[in-house]
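call fold(seq) -> C-alpha cells
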Amino acid sequence: MEKKIGVVDDFYAKVSVAAFKLDDTLAIGDTIHIQGHTTNLTQKVTSMQIDRKDVQQANPGDSIGIKVDSRVRKGDIVYKVME
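ret:
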C-alpha cells in the first residue's frame, strides 16, 4: 500500500536531488515511490536535507531534498510505501 506524501517541485540533476514539500512524515530508511508520466522509481531514503542540513526525519509542511537514484520530473507524485 502507498500513501501520497508530496509532489516534486524541482529536480537538481548535478547532485541527483528531488525537492518537494511533505504532506506526511518521512524518515531515513523509509521506502518511497516516485511516479509520473515517464517516471517510475522505487527506492529507500538514504539522504534527506532541510535547508541543506542533513536530517533523520521530516514532518508535514517541511520542504525537503532527497537524493534519488535516477531522474525525476517536476510534478511527479511522491508516495511513501507502507510496509
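The chain has one domain: 2-81.
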